[in-house]
Amino acid sequence: MTIKKTKQIIKTGKKFIGTPYIFGAAPGRTDMFDCSSFVQYVYATHGIFLPRTSRKQYQVGKAVSLSRVKQGDLLFFTSKKRSKFVGIQRIGHVAIFIGNNSILHTSRAEKKVTIAPLHPYWSTKIIGARRVID
Fold first, then answer.
1. Most buried of the four, 42, 79, 124, 133, by CB within 10 Å?
2. Listing from the earlier edge strand, what are the strands of the sheet with 126-131?
């Protein structure tokens, strides 16, 4: 993963901190996002084209063990609603790992793009990680 591209992706994502969270936000919009449209837009800005939904995004790139996660990797989480499912159907959220045990994502609770610590809440919901930047 190139450090320069990773830093650019994170910088682009941070420009949208405070942008409203709306479930089902249309792809390509920058006035509102849901988790997967946010990730899709930020990476597309840097020439990395991802599918629209978090479950489809989980199917691209390279699987990464949680002990080897690097800045710019995508982290995937389950949600209360989706935790009863199995496999990729459990995925209910995607975020960008930005280092220091933090994620850049859209928060349903805060209703905006924000930075959040992985611990304590998100670390209990994590399902896996994917690397989409070489």
1. 42
2. 62-64, 126-131, 74-78, 91-99, 102-107, 112-117
What pLDDT sits at residue 31? Answer: 98
> Which residues are the active-site residues?
35, 93, 105
Share the mean pLDDT of the chain.
94
Instruction: Write out the two tokens for 50.
Output: 């991802």
Neighbouring C-alpha atoms within 13 Å toward the C-beta of 22: 11
Determine the angle formed by the axes of helices 3-14 and 35-44, rounding to 10 degrees. Answer: 130
> Thinking of the domain 3-131, which architecture would CATH place it in?
Alpha-Beta Complex (3.90)
| Total-model pTM | 0.95
To which residue do tokens 């609603």 refer? 81
Burial of residue 89 (number of CB atoms within 10 Å: 0-12, 13-18, 19+)? exposed
Residue showing tokens 């420009």 = 15
Q: Decide if 52 contacts 106 (C-beta within 8 A).
A: no
Q: pLDDT under 70 in the chain at which residues?
A: 1
Closest CA relative to residue 24, chosen from 33, 14, 11, 12: 33
